[in-house]
Amino acid sequence: FTDTIRNQWGGKPYQSLMSSLDQLLEEHSYIDRDRLAALGASYGGYMINWINGHTDRFKALVNHDGVFSTISTYYTIDILFFPEYEFEGVPFDEKARVNYEQWSPERFVKNWKTPTLVVHSEKDYRLAVTEGISAFTALRRQNVPAKFLYFPDGNHWVLKPANSLRWHQEVIDWITTWTSEDDNVPLATKFRIQ
To answer: Of the candidates 22, 45, 67, which has an alpha carbon nearest to the alpha carbon of residue 117?
Structure first.
């Protein structure tokens, strides 16, 4: 299965996720299709950035340690084999460059509309913190509600107990704010910049 999605990062996996969501909504009428949220970490964070550029069906997104630019990620990632295998070469090779650019969420920033919580850590050597900062900047420069949750002592995972508690509280608060049925949630709360 993983081999079939090689060089298909925003293609087959995205289509599969959207088809699966459609099937869930069709089969389970109790799911509120007007208050959906999506969360992802690592490749899942990449997919959140991709989703933001390709659909507005979600009310809230959470991107944890996700790829913003496949090209900039190549030059900072701790395991070069991974992008070279996935995108079939190095980004300075013309043929492979097309692959990197085709699947880069950064190309679709102009379509981003969904309120997004971006989470990243300073000691993440898999995906440099600049990927999270870039996503946050892209959101805020377009006036898309966003929040950046930064862990100076974290890596690609949230391992410290206090950080885990903070992570969970922030994620729950973000999703609750944007999917709440309560019309009395103050707009200032929804649009606060932190």
So the answer is: 45
